[in-house]
């Protein structure tokens, strides 16, 4: 019943039985991944270091890893700064030329533990952490490495310290903030049939927020397990996020036309508390007049990347558009499905249903199989 309202199914005028079956509720979201992505194939989606190594081998554009923190264990040879203690990490971050950087766990999902460290004040001995304000080093560690959410996070795997990505100037002008608004691109990657882009979403950051996590339309904080957050590698310097109420200061999502890169009106939150915006609420520019830059290049690079990670059959890509083209942030296994279904289109449309029936292992997804039988 909760999904019936949050996804806006109640407001659809078409045949409700047909449309209801195309919407995938939260109760079966994880089963889609289990059905299509063998557990032996998902390491690059869970282990950011494995993803980085594979992406480099296929010359995919990714964020630069400048340092790697791990108290024990081996280190990747391609990373210059190997930080083997908390003290080494502190010394690295307090060097003025090191910042800004984005830190994220090697083993994580849903953006947990990611922090953007913008600058360091040697007098106050505090870091400016986007979305969290000014923190001492111990407070920074508490919010990052010692993050208590261990369901999707393994601290012993280490931490990546990466360069900050600057988004395309047209996106900054449209959104009114340098904090990048990322793309989520879902690809069906059938063995033998090749990759096909199924769904594209633009996650718009409102000015004042620190990342593009949708978090049910509220501004949220970095490192939460909110809805479908990216890793945040794309963050840039800016003002700290503030808490807000749904639909007023929170981020937004637009659907992107798979072929043209044109964007739909924005949705501000889960329904029924959402708004349908024809123009940006802060900058005033109309969504129907805007097209994602480099769209043909983005499509081509996403399809090329999906072939490289072919053992996974359903890929959730997080991409940032820079002035030089697309940059891959990460690949997700348990990609959030709810925010992909807020524009009146369920994720289980005829294309996805047919794809799952042809390529999925439904023995591992009994509730999903039941839902497909109703369609």
TrEMBL record:
Top-level taxon in the UniProt lineage: Bacteria
Name of the protein in its database record: Alpha-L-glutamate ligase-related protein ATP-grasp domain-containing protein
Biased composition (Low complexity): 217-248
Pfam families xref list: ATPgrasp_ST
Alpha-L-glutamate ligase-related protein ATP-grasp domain residues: 247-348
Region (Disordered): 213-248
Species annotation: Sediminihaliea albiluteola
InterPro entries assigned: RimK-rel_E_lig_ATP-grasp
């Amino acid at each position: 019943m909760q999904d019936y309202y949050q996804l806006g199914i109640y407001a659809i005028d078409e045949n409700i039985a047909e449309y209801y079956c195309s919407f995938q509720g939260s109760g079966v979201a994880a089963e889609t991944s289990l059905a299509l992505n063998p557990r032996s194939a998902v390491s690059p989606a869970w282990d950011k270091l494995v993803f980085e190594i594979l992406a480099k081998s296929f010359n995919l554009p990714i964020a630069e890893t400048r340092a790697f923190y791990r108290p024990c264990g081996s280190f990747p040879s391609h990373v210059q700064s190997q930080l083997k203690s908390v003290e080494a990490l502190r010394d690295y971050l307090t060097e003025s030329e090191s910042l800004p950087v984005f830190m994220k766990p090697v083993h994580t999902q849903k953006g947990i533990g990611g922090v953007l460290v913008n600058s360091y004040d040697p007098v106050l001995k505090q870091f400016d952490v986007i979305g969290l304000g000014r923190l001492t080093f111990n407070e920074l560690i508490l919010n990052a490495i010692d993050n208590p959410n261990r369901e999707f996070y393994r601290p012993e795997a280490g931490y990546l310290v990466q360069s900050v990505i600057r988004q395309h100037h047209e996106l900054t002008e449209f959104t009114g903030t340098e904090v990048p608004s990322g793309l989520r691109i879902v690809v069906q990657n059938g063995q033998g049939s090749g990759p096909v882009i199924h769904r594209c979403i633009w996650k718009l950051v409102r000015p004042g927020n620190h990342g593009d996590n949708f978090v049910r339309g509220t501004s949220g904080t970095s490192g939460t397990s909110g809805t479908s957050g990216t890793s945040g590698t794309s963050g840039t310097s800016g003002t700290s996020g503030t808490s807000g109420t749904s639909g007023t200061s929170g981020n937004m999502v637009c659907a992107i036309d798979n072929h043209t890169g044109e964007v739909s009106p924005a949705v501000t939150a889960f329904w029924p508390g959402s708004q349908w915006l024809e123009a940006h609420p802060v900058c005033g520019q109309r969504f129907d007049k805007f097209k994602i830059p480099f769209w043909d290049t983005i499509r081509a690079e996403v399809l090329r990347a999906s072939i490289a990670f072919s053992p996974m059959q359903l890929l959730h890509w997080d991409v940032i558009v820079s002035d030089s083209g697309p940059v891959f942030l990460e690949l997700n296994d348990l990609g959030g499905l709810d925010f992909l279904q807020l524009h009146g289109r369920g994720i289980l449309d005829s294309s996805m249903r047919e794809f799952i029936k042809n390529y999925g292992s439904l023995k591992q997804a009994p509730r999903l199989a039941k839902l497909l039988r109703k369609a």
